[in-house]
Amino acid sequence: QVQLVESGGGLAQPGGSLRLSCVASGFTFSSYGIGWARQAPGKGLEWVSAIYSDGSDTGYADSVKGRFTISRDNSKNTVYLQMNSLKPEDSALYYCATGGLKYWGQGTQVTVSS
User: Fold this and answer.
1) Alpha-carbon dihedral sign for residues 5, 18, 90, 84
2) Which residues contact 42 (CB under 8 A, 6 or more apart)?
3) How far apart are CA 8 and CA 102, in angstroms?
4) Residue 97 has what pLDDT?
5) 100: left (phi over 0), alpha (psi -120 to 50) or beta
6) Which of 17, 54, 111, 113 is deepest in the core (most CB within 10 A)?
7) What integer pLDDT is reported at residue 101 of this predicted model?
8) Which residue in 90, 89, 92, 69 sits closest to 81, CA to CA?
9) Cβ neighbours of residue 84 under 8 Å, at least 6 residues apart?
């Protein structure tokens, strides 16, 4: 079965960095785009970034453009989200998803606070 497992979240200071990982299994990873979304307490789900199946194209929400970088290693069935210059408003539960948003991971919590 399709599984997505996120990790790498935690507590960071404003201006700091974190790298999230999403490890996939149960499908042909190199054939599918992967996206990241986030949800802050009391707010709706916000799309953050996505990457094409072979990594040839990426996209970012305006709120993270220039600070976050998505990448993937198809040999490791893993997608990464490098988050730099973190802001308190980046605090949220971060999810990876695939299959036209049919499959989601359980999420990893990111908290940005001094």
Assistant:
1) negative
2) none
3) 23
4) 97
5) left
6) 111
7) 83
8) 69
9) 17, 67, 68, 69
Closest CA to 78 of 11, 37, 32: 32
What is the separation of C-alpha 44 from the centre of its chain, rounded to a whole number of angstroms? 16
Which burial class, exposed, middle or buried, applies to 66 when counting CB atoms under 10 A from its CB (0-12, 13-18, 19+)? exposed
Closest C-alpha among 19, 41, 34, 36 to residue 86 = 19
Q: DSSP 3-state assignment of 89?
A: helix
> Do strands 103-104 and 58-60 pair parallel, antiparallel, or not at all (unpaired)?
unpaired
- Encoded tokens for 54: 């072979």
Amino acid at 35: G
Give the dihedral sign, CA 112/62/74/5: positive
Average pLDDT over residues 13-28: 97
Tell me the per-residue pLDDT of 68-112, one tens digit each, with 9 for 90 and over.
999 999 999 999 999 999 999 999 999 999 988 899 999 999 999
pLDDT the model gives residue 75: 97
The answer to whether 111 touches 12, Cβ cutoff 8 Å, is: yes
Q: How many residues does the chain have?
A: 114
